[in-house]
Amino acid sequence: MPWYLWLLAASALGAVEFFTLTLVFGLLAGAALVAAVVAGIGIGLLGQIVAFLVAAGVGLVVMRPVAMRYVARQPLARDGSDALIGRRAEVVQEVTGSRGLIKLSGEDWSARALDESLVIPVGSFVDVMEIEGATAIVYPRELLP
User: Fold this and answer.
1) What is the DSSP secondary structure assignment for residue 121, as one 8-state letter?
2) Is the overall model pTM greater than 0.85, yes or no?
């Protein structure tokens, strides 16, 4: 098989990978490039097919699990309201299980207590445990273990 047909196959597989983002077609495109190089140095069709299969097998068995593990990792930095979780805030208006107001990162946020039986007085410091919409779910600092 001529080398340029392997390049054409690699291009087609690369285009399919671009639209599917599964990494499988990208690895097969790389294997087709290996087969194109093998064809370019003059090895016959059987050698080209063996090179394609070996490169595809190595890519799918070795590289894909490593790449998928890397893609599945959580980002190191949190952004948006997720970045506020764990921060300290000051109670501006008494916080109960249903309402309240805190000063968080220089802004006033509506808040409610994580434990609905708690009443957190003005001036207390709290930790932000969760964010639900525009409401911070908080717990008093001095009660934390």
Assistant:
1) P
2) no
Paired tokens of 114: 């994580």
Pairing mode, strands 101-104 and 88-93? antiparallel
In terms of DSSP H, where are the helices of 21-112?
Answer: 24-40, 45-58, 64-72
What is the C-alpha separation between 142 and 126, in angstroms, rounded? Answer: 8
Q: What are phi and psi of 76, to 5 degrees?
A: -70, -35
Q: Cα–chain-centroid distance for residue 36? A: 34
pLDDT tens column, 17-48 = 999 988 889 999 999 999 999 999 999 999 99
Contact residues for 140 (Cβ-Cβ < 8 A; gap 6+): 118, 120, 124, 125, 126, 127
- By DSSP bridging, strand 107-113 and strand 135-140 are parallel
The pLDDT tens digits of the residues spanning 77-100 come to 666 777 788 899 999 999 998 999
- Dihedral in degrees, nearest 10, Cα atoms 117, 137, 72, 78: -150
Helix (H) or strand (E) holding 50: helix 45-58
